[in-house]
């Protein structure tokens, strides 16, 4: 079954300076995943955090651990087995509160598990301390570490900057490798310090089984990574081909857009030319109409004057006819008759001109 993640958050990781025990050393370059893992086969809880291939936190939860909130967004706890103090800087107080709640929950579960194991007489004991430390030294170390936890200064606020998620499988794999190394150290140190041969054999068998489980889980994870890598490669190829196709489509759309713009510009110029031609033809036709109207008005006024003159001449002609009876042989009468004939001819010409002008005017009105 192996270890399974039960809770994950994002935080900046710090380690206490082993020299001064008063200042912090930055363990992560950014906010990374910090996860609680549960090992059902050993009934253990661990806090694990990995950046790249480096495990920055590998802490087994024990009932004696205490998580202390030293500021609004920062908290810390001491781990005797790792011989260090871990510090976490969160982006908000709410995230810190969730971590504290989970820490207390896991701590109580560990305490209940140990109490149940002691009542059942089980030999499986949670590895609380390092192999080369006695229980008395462990308890004193816990007291000393807890005593200076509250005095450690809070790291800068920039520690709670941007947060980027990492793959949980990646964290598990790195932690499995780190587990194997730590368990080798535990086995070697236990074999050198514990005196009972029977207990040493049992411990060796127990640790051997744990190493086998960790190795089997690492192999299974390696197969999963290979499958995930092949999937990522195939996805990358598909995305690359899709990107190339999209680029080709964009180029084609740009060419079509350019041709549409040119066609639109050409149509605009044509429309403008037609509008100009239409306005020019209308203005020329209006000017021609005005000229014809003025000419017709002049001709009408000329005809009216000629008609008046004709009426006067008819009156004179009637008077001349009256006097012609008395003066048939008078030369003036003959001259008046010739003038009358010429005037009649001129009047007929004027009437013909008026008819022609009326036809032109009617034709212009129809067009």
Q: What characteristics describe this protein?
A:
367 residues; alpha+beta; 8-stranded antiparallel sheet; 5 helices; 8 strands
Describe this structure in words.
This protein is of the alpha+beta class and 367 residues long. Helix content is 63%, strand content 15%. Strands 1, 2, 3, 4, 5, 6, 7 and 8 form an 8-stranded antiparallel β-sheet that branches. It is rod-shaped. Residues 122-151 and 156-195 have low confidence and may be disordered.
Q: Care to give the gist of this entry?
A:
This protein is of the alpha+beta class. It has helices at 93-120, 135-149, 168-193, 197-324, 331-366; strands at 3-16, 24-26, 32-39, 44-51, 54-60, 68-69, 74-79, 84-89.
Topology:
Blueprint: E1 3-16, E2 24-26, E3 32-39, E4 44-51, E5 54-60, E6 68-69, E7 74-79, E8 84-89, H1 93-120, H2 135-149, H3 168-193, H4 197-324, H5 331-366
Antiparallel strand pairs: 1-2, 1-3, 1-8, 3-4, 4-5, 6-7, 7-8
Major pleated sheet: 8 strands, antiparallel
What share of residues are in beta strands? 5-15%
Average pLDDT reading: 75
Number of strands: 8
Identify the overall geometry. Answer: rod-shaped
Q: What helical percentage do the residues reach?
A: 55-70%
Q: Could you tell me how far the N terminus lies from the C terminus, measured between alpha carbons in angstroms?
A: 101 Å
Report the radius of gyration as a whole number of Å: 57 Å
Low-confidence stretches: 122-151, 156-195
């Amino acid at each position: 079954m192996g270890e399974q993640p039960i809770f994950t958050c994002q935080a900046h990781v710090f380690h206490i300076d082993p020299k001064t025990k008063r200042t912090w050393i930055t363990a992560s370059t950014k906010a990374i995943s910090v996860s609680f893992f549960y090992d059902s086969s050993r009934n253990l809880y661990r806090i694990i955090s990995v950046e790249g291939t480096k495990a920055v936190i590998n802490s087994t939860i024990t009932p004696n651990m205490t998580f202390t909130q030293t500021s609004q967004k920062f908290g810390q706890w001491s781990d005797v087995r790792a011989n260090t103090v871990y510090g976490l800087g969160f982006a908000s107080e709410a995230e810190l509160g969730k971590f504290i709640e989970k820490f207390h929950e896991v701590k109580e579960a560990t305490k209940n598990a140990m109490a149940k194991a002691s009542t059942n007489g089980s030999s499986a004991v949670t590895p609380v301390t390092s192999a080369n430390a006695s229980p008395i030294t462990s308890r004193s170390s816990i007291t000393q570490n807890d005593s200076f936890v509250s005095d450690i200064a809070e790291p800068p606020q920039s520690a709670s900057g941007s947060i980027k998620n990492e793959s949980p499988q990646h964290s598990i794999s790195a932690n499995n490798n780190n587990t194997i190394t730590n368990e080798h150290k535990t086995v070697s140190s236990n074999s050198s310090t514990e005196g009972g041969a029977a207990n040493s054999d049992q411990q060796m068998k127990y640790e051997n089984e744990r190493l086998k489980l960790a190795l089997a889980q690492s192999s299974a994870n390696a197969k999963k990574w290979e499958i995930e890598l092949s999937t990522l490669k195939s996805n990358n190829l598909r995305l690359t081909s899709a990107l190339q196709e999209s680029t080709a489509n964009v180029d084609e759309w740009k060419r079509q857009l350019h041709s549409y713009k040119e066609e639109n510009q050409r149509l605009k110029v044509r429309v403008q030319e037609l509008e100009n031609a239409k306005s020019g033809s209308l203005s020329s036709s209006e000017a021609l109409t005005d000229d014809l109207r003025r000419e017709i008005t002049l001709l009408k006024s000329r005809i009216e004057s000629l008609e008046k003159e004709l009426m006067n001449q008819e009156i004179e002609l009637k008077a001349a006819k009256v006097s012609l009876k008395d003066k048939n042989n008078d030369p003036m009468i003959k001259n008046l008759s010739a003038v009358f004939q010429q005037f009649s001819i001129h009047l007929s010409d004027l009437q013909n001109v008026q008819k022609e002008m009326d036809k032109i005017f009617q034709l212009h009105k129809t067009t």
